[in-house]
Structure formats: structure tokens, C-alpha cells
Amino acid sequence: MNSSAFVPGQSLSPDLSPKGREEADSFPLPQAGEGLRERAAKQARHAPEAQSTPGAATETPVISSAASTQEPPGRGAKEGGQEKSALAERHIVVTRPAGQATHLAEALIELAAHPVLFPVLAIEEIENTAPLQDAAIRLDQYDWAVFVSPNAVDRALAVVLAHRRWPASVRVATVGHSSEQALARHGIGDVVAPQERFDSEALLALPPFADMSGQQVIIFRGDGGRDLFGDVLKARGAAVDYVTCYRRAKPALDPAPLLRLWSDGHLDALTVTSSEGLRNLYEMVGKLGQSWLKKTPTFVPHARIAEQARALGLTQVVLTGPADAGLLAGLTEYFSRGH
To answer: Is the pLDDT confidence value at 71 over 50?
Structure first.
């Protein structure tokens, strides 16, 4: 089995219209001499942005082996005198939004696994950017600006920084390392963020947010985000404004690649990083996929997602540490035990 070969997942009903052929032609194919990391990055970057139009199933890219139809011999065995990765030849679904799966996909490939890209959330532009532009004008009146995700950072600052420099008087907070890194890319480095558990509860537990009397806070987020952080700050005396800077939607993707892997006995695990994404996945795979999903090891980095998974009837839920590092450690530990 040639682990360096990549094949796109095939739709049961491929789009043969001129538009469909154009999109297929634009999907990057591996180039001769191109390494695993470069190929993973290219495919993850070019994974098609899923559209939310009902019935508009699109082809889903799958980073996998060329055939994937035979059971790989000796998983976990020694190869050439060296211990094989516990994830060698495993097909592991990565459900992050298109364009945000590169890091995890690359890391899985380095561990000899086959990442299967199946985005369960589509991040879409908002039609009306006037509230963001207004926030840029009024930014100096706030004591704190809170960004709930890397998407919030990139979408909000694309508008704000096009109008002005970030005011030094406004302190910045966020909930995780990925958002901190996104802020740093935009030149904002002095950020308050939790360092162990990455959620609103952990951010609220930090000393700067203990007493918010008289503080003005603006929260940049996606549509329909959790109100917990803002509600608690209000209870602690703050005035809170919300600004929506992107939309989340359920992608209209063809689940055939996942169903085929499940049917062939080659879908080993899934990684899911949001409760909303998990609900979307459950709906996207249909009744047949749901029966397999409920029995497939599903790795989640937060207890809230684990609760959602169990509520949907999933029986093999593995709670890991936070972020990609936690998912990778959990996957490796699980499969090292001979599962």
C-alpha cells in the first residue's frame, strides 16, 4: 500500500456540469517529488468551502492511500526493526472546517495515519459588515475586546484594522492558543487567555475578570454563539456588546466517502472539535452512517462535546486533552492499547 498517494473521495453522483468540472479541475493534485507535509497542506488549504444550499452535494477530499481496500498487515508491529506508529494505516476523520484542518492532517500523516477530511462546519462571510465597521469606530470606548475563536479574530480584524490601528488602551482576551496565534499574526501580542482548559469557563476564572464593575466589553463571535461569557460578565458589573463577524453553516457534502470506508471496515476513528459540528455530522451521514457512527471511536477535546456525543447515542466517546495535541495524544494512547 502506497502511503504517499492521495485520492479525493468520490461522490456517488458527481457533478458533471461545466461548473462542477471547473471545480474538480481546480482541486490540487500531488506533484512529483512533493512530500507528505506539502501535499497535506495543499489539500487541506484547497478543501472546497462547503455551501449550505440544500441538495448541493459536493465532492469531499480524502487524504488516504491509493486503494484502501485491503486490511493492512501487522498494525502496531515492528517494521524494519523499528516500532511502527500506533496510528499507522489508520483512517481518521478530521472534521475541522475547510482550510483549518492542515495542522492536524499533517501531524497524522507524520504518524503514518491516513487523515480523511470531512468538514462538518462551513465558515461563511456575513452579508452586513456595518456593525463591524461601527465597532472599529467605537473601539476606544471599550476596556476589553474578547475574541471567541480564530475565525472571530481573522474576520473581525480584517475589517477593524482596515479602518484603524488597534488602540493600546483596549485589552484583549481569548479562549485558546489558536486564537492567540491568530491575534499575533495581526500584531496583537499582549493577550489574556487560559493556559490549561480552553473555554469560556476557564477564561472567566482568570483574575482580571473577577470584578468587572464599570467595565465596557465587546465580544467578537460567530452567529448564535454561547452567551455564557457575556452573561457572567454582566452579572459581575460589566456592560457587554456583541458583534457577529461570521456565520456557521452545515455543509452540503456527499457522505459517500465515509460510508464507503465504514462499509469496507476501514474507518477507524473520528475527531470532532465542536458540539455544533457533531450535530451536523450526525445529520450529514444519514441513518446508515449514524448506525456506524454510534459504534466508531470518536475523539473529542472537551467534556461538553462528549456530553453531546453520548446524548446522540455514540458509545465509543474518548475525551482527550485540548487542541490538536490532545487529540493526537488521545488517539495514540487509545490505539497503543491494541484497539
So the answer is: no
What letter would DSSP give residue 47?
A: S
256, 315, 109, 94 alpha-carbon torsion, rounded to 10°: 50
Closest CA to 258 of 272, 273, 269: 269
Helix axes 303-311, 275-284, angle to 10 degrees: 30
Q: How many domains does the chain have?
A: 2
Are 281 and 329 part of one and the same domain?
yes
> pLDDT tens for residues 108-139?
999 999 999 999 999 999 989 999 999 999 99
The answer to whether residues 323 and 296 touch, using CB atoms and an 8 Å cutoff, is no
Contact 333, 319 (CB under 8 A): no
Supply angle C-alpha 321, 325, 331, rounded to 5.
75
Q: How far apart are CA 263 and CA 289, in angstroms?
A: 9
Are 272 and 202 found together in one domain? Answer: no
**Separation CA 304–CA 228 (nearest Å):** 13
* SS3 assignment, position 284: helix
The mean pLDDT value for 279-286 works out to 97
CATH number, domain containing residue 82: 3.40.50.10090
Predicted local distance difference test score (pLDDT) of residue 178: 85
Question: Are residue 258 and residue 117 in the same domain, yes or no?
Answer: yes
What pLDDT was estimated at residue 83?
Answer: 73
Where does a domain end: 216, 248, 280? 248
Please name every residue paired with 82 in a beta bridge, in sequence order, or none if there are none.
Answer: 79
